[in-house]
Description:
Distance between the termini: 36 Å
Number of strands: 9
Shape: globular
Radius of gyration: 17 Å
Structural class: alpha/beta
Strand order of the largest sheet: 3-2-1-4-6-8-7
Largest sheet: 7 strands, mixed
Amino acid sequence: MPLxxxxxxxxxxxxxxxxxxxxxxxxxxxGARTAVVTATWAEGTHRVAELAEALRILGxxxxxxxxxxxxxxxxxxxxxxxxxxxxxxxxVRRLVRHLREVRPEVVVTHDAYGGLTGHPDHLHTHRVxxxxxxxxxxxxxxxxxxxxxxxxxxxxxxxxxxxAGELGALLVRNGRPMYSVPDSWVGATVDVRPWLAQKIRAVxxxxxxxxxxxxxxxxxxxxxxxxxxxxxxxxxxxxxxGPASALPHPESVC
Length: 254
């Protein structure tokens, strides 16, 4: 059975590679359409250039940016508003446009915790994506953003409780809390070892994050066995939305 077309929506450049790089590479290798929307950082900034290289490695097309500022890095979108401060309706509209243009069967984003670390941009990207996936299929919402489209499933990148302790020791510093979900919530566990080398190359393509010692930098310094433990499995909570479908444009609705 062919793999479905896929749109990933993540908060920052590098989240796509860290959270879903294996799945993105897997779908692209199988010939499925793949694309990535990134909520923060603006066109022309250095991290968007790094994102473009990571997406090339994963086979996920060109960057698609919502253009908001990172909550902790104002220069990520000079003169722009922070994602968390943007009007919700505006953020949803921007993402609906991408959903209707790409018309994916499956959408992937952060879970409601925003992953193990609970970054506020991750949390808000989850909220915006959950709303946009519903809105994209409703003909009378955002009619200027393209013809309606409803994906068939929403997958939330997550970490089960059973894996959180080991992964947290590799990921989380300074005793910060970690956020994981009951194992029974996980609807898809994907072994991405066949695409692990590709995923690691994509993570390391975010060179400025490597240089400043963020998670890609820590991964760059890890022993190969630790890298594999951290990155070779991806977990997702699955929400089925019904068959993927195009719906009438508002002008055609009786």
